[in-house]
Specification:
Bound molecules: protoporphyrin IX containing FE
Organism: Discostella pseudostelligera
Strand order of the largest sheet: 5-6-12-9-7
Family: Belongs to the cytochrome P450 family.
Binding site for heme: 502
Cofactor: heme
Keywords: Heme, Iron, Metal-binding, Monooxygenase, Oxidoreductase, Signal
Radius of gyration: 23 Å
CATH class: Mainly Alpha
Shape: globular
Length: 562
């Protein structure tokens, strides 16, 4: 079986760690990564994984040039789809000015989008914070920039984001950069659907698999996944929590989302397949070149689809179970019960749930571990809340209702983690369907449009500090602020806004809360590398992550039934 224990591989005050697993034969789409029983790593950070995987033996400079060059070529090839020739000029029919900010070099756009992604002190999203600071007179809530030469506007501030993103499909719509990317997610993933009616239909039916009632049914599987991961921890040993919680969210993916029954050795194959498949979804080389289905990513996709197809056959024979996939398979449209999801819809959208749900929840849990390690008082309160809940419901299994009614502190801890370290920017690029005005500025037709939770939380007028310390995980992490209406944040959009609001929010919150509740009950830990004076973040990551993946040493671990 795999172990998530990290062993020191060199001495020194900042030790380096490797991830060790045992070697075993996998009768599946690919052999384990490790050679001669050596170490390997389980990674699910698409951007960094692409870079690591492509790198091979070539130098980082050549590698980066190939990556950025092919991404630029891809965008250039497709630009006629969304880049009318009169851009980036303002729309002459409007008197309002364009938003502040720089579009960078012609064609190339803002190089800083790549070189200034993150900052070791403040984490990812640095480029957006920088753009937001360019205007005279402080941070504007709207600013323009040009990733890969595409003029775009970033919209922040609760009122502005609501105004624009509630009018999805009218003012703005998703733009498909590459048909191959659509195919990579199965062809019918709702995230790429630009027709409003079809999008609503898919959301209604896929959403039926993640209603509160479905989450009730999911609780045993979520607890099993969390318990399994917490059981891999060992007293006195150092562990990189990012790996544990990444494995946890992948465990949720096969156990709960797909309802598979994998043996230990197949778990590793599944995890590798998800990893390889996601890398291929983003890899500009594969998006550009033919023959993707013969690539590692193409084979991984085939493997995942075959697993889903087997499950669909089982539903046909045996009827429904508590999995999310089963919820989708049996979902009927309330508006017209004769309408069901097609097989392709189910495959594409179950893959989407894995894609959209794994790294997001894993990185939030990693940041949560860091925050709890830095704020032991918060961790103790979390523990006490769990002890009180266990005393109240002695002998009973945790339910969603218990989490909701008896864990208000757990709720605000999760909220505060996502306030301080939300996704740097939305997942999907939209394009303005017509010229519109927001916050006194015009956004011309054809411009790219995104919202930015990071800058929205930073500029929240209800709690903004001059020195931005409200966004600092040491000085600003205060879950209590959510408990009082006078201090409660007002501009808070970690799950987005409008018709494309996170469809997995119920499952995401349940899985994160189950993990943290069981972790707080059973584990005592200290951060190994990090103190309040030297918190460091990964530089090149769209999703915020501590630089060392939240390295902890486990000081005590109690039994699962405690
Ligand atoms: C902490 C965890 C998560 C965060 C912070 C998060 C955040 C978001 C955000 C901001 C969006 C909106 C993107 C946009 O408007 O472009 C989104 C969309 C989405 N999320 Fe999540 N998400 C999380 C977990 C999950 C999970 C666990 C699932 C499923 C199992 C999921 C499924 C989806 C789907 C399907 C969409 C697309 C909705 C659509 O296009 O209509 N997410 N998420």
């Amino acid at each position: 079986t795999s172990s998530f224990v990290l062993r020191p591989s060199s001495s020194g005050s900042r030790r380096r760690f490797t991830f060790s697993t045992s070697t075993h034969n996998l009768n599946t789409y690919r052999k384990p990564l490790h050679r001669h029983g050596a170490t390997t790593s389980l990674q699910l950070s698409p951007l960094s994984s692409i870079i690591t995987n492509i790198s091979g033996k070539i130098s980082p400079q050549i590698r980066n040039s190939i990556l950025i060059g092919s991404a630029a070529a891809l965008l250039f090839k497709n630009r006629s789809k969304f880049y009318p020739p009169n851009l980036p000029r303002p729309d002459p029919a409007f008197t309002e000015p364009l938003p502040d900010g720089s579009l960078g070099c012609p064609y190339l756009g803002n190089i800083g989008f790549f070189t200034n992604m993150g900052n070791a002190k403040t984490g990812s999203g640095e480029f957006y914070r920088y753009q937001a600071s360019l205007a005279d007179g402080g941070n504007p809530q709207l600013f323009k920039y040009a990733p890969l030469g595409t003029p775009s506007v970033v919209i922040t501030g609760m009122a502005n984001v609501k105004k624009v993103f509630n009018q999805e499909f009218k003012l703005i719509n998703a733009g498909i950069l590459s048909d191959k990317m659509v195919e990579s997610l199965g062809g019918e993933s709702l995230v790429f659907v630009t027709d409003q009616e079809r999008h609503q239909f898919l959301r209604r039916l896929v959403g039926q698999s993640m209603t509160p009632e479905q989450i009730d049914k999911a609780m045993p599987a979520l607890m099993e996944s969390a318990t399994r991961m917490i059981n891999t921890l060992k007293e006195g040993e150092d562990v990189e929590m990012e790996r544990v919680v990444t494995a946890f969210t992948l465990d949720v993916a096969w156990r709960q989302i797909l309802g598979l029954n994998l043996k230990d050795d197949e778990t590793e194959t599944f995890n590798n397949a998800v990893n390889d498949w996601i890398i291929g979804c983003f890899n500009p080389l594969w998006l550009f070149l033919p023959g993707k289905r013969f690539s590692k990513s193409g084979k991984a996709f085939k493997y995942l689809v075959s697993k889903i197809e087997d499950r669909l056959d089982e539903f046909e024979r045996n009827g429904p179970d508590g999995s999310t996939l089963s919820g989708m398979y049996f979902a009927k449209d309330e508006e017209d019960p004769s309408k069901r999801l097609s097989k392709k819809d189910i495959i594409s959208n179950s893959l989407l749930l894995i894609f959209a749900g794994s790294e997001t929840a894993a990185s939030t849990l990693t940041v949560a571990t860091l925050a709890l390690g830095l704020h032991k008082d918060v961790f103790n309160k979390l523990k006490n809340e769990q002890l009180a809940m266990m005393a109240k419901h002695e002998g009973k299994v945790m339910t969603r209702e218990m989490l909701e009614k008896d864990c208000p502190y757990l709720d605000v801890v999760v909220k505060e983690v996502m306030r301080i370290k939300p996704l740097a920017i939305t997942g999907e690029n939209r394009f303005a369907q017509e010229t519109f005005v927001v916050d006194g500025k015009q956004v011309p037709k054809g411009y790219g449009v995104t919202f930015c939770p990071g800058v929205t939380h930073l500029l929240d007028p209800s709690l903004r500090e001059e020195d931005n310390s409200h966004m600092d995980i040491v000085k600003g992490f205060k879950p209590e602020r959510w408990l009082d209406d006078k201090t409660k944040p007002t501009d808070y959009i970690p799950f987005g806004v409008g018709p494309r609001y996170c469809l997995g929010v119920n499952l995401a919150l349940a899985e994160m809360k189950v993990f943290l509740a069981l972790f707080a009950r059973r584990v005592d830990f200290d951060l190994t590398n990090t103190t309040s004076d030297d918190v460091e973040w990964k530089n090149f990551s769209i999703i915020p992550k501590p630089k060392d993946g939240a390295l902890v040493s486990v000081s005590s671990l109690s039994d699962a039934n405690v």
